[in-house]
């Protein structure tokens, strides 16, 4: 009878431990279970399988009264530590980003290049944290550039100089998939985020030498892009993602669901998808200086 009571007590404790781990995982930024089409953290599934196995086999374990039972806390702590090792944290906001995500478009896994916070006004009000991702081949191509860190911190003095944002433009316009994952750190709305993206593109238009026809195409594509944003709120902590595909399409998604896709057959779309990304690496006034610095430091 004592064996049965002890066995039941251990079973209840282990099941409670499993529930606590599941709650911790659910709270971890970027490792929530995603519906089909959402970005998923590589390796999260395998960790959940470990938890499922542990829960399933709790009944199979026996209690030995002649030897001490193996403590479960070190095992559980190891699982959570492994979970944290797949994340990078924005030191300014505490928002965590997975180091690798699976693309839902035309590439394989995307690697985190860097992360940082977006601030506005002279008060440096924090608006959102962001993670910049690219497929592994893009990361390898950038890392292979000689003295790449030094070159990315410079500004081109002439058109032939392949440094600073010109270097990043060559990479971004190549057939690689890039993504910017945005997580607001305060409650906002789609209209506010939309206007920020549109202003960034319009600022790039002013510094680019666009002909009348191309300017018209960009403006028409911008109107379509603006229509993707619903007239609703975006709570703190939700995820908005901008993805430039290998073909140059621009995909806007919210919590994994696609809100709209601009076809790169239009020259205006190619300009928008390139310049929105390039604005984060601008030589002057990048959208997030800390994200740009993070990309350089992680190379």
Distance separating the two termini: 62 Å
Rough shape? globular
Label the CATH architecture of the largest domain: 3-Layer(bba) Sandwich
- Unreliable residue stretches: 1-7, 21-69
Strand order of the largest sheet: 3-4-5-6-9-10-11
Quick one: CATH class of the largest domain?
A: Alpha Beta
What's the alpha carbon Rg, rounded to whole Å? 23 Å
Biggest sheet record: 7 strands, antiparallel
Q: Helicity range of the residues?
A: 40-55%
DSSP E strands, number: 11
Domain count, please report it: 2
Mean pLDDT score = 81
Q: Strand pairing plus helix content: what structural class?
A: alpha+beta
Keyword list:
299 residues, alpha+beta, Chalcone isomerase, seven-stranded antiparallel β-sheet, two-stranded antiparallel ribbon, 20% strand, Chalcone_isomerase_3-sand, intramolecular lyase activity
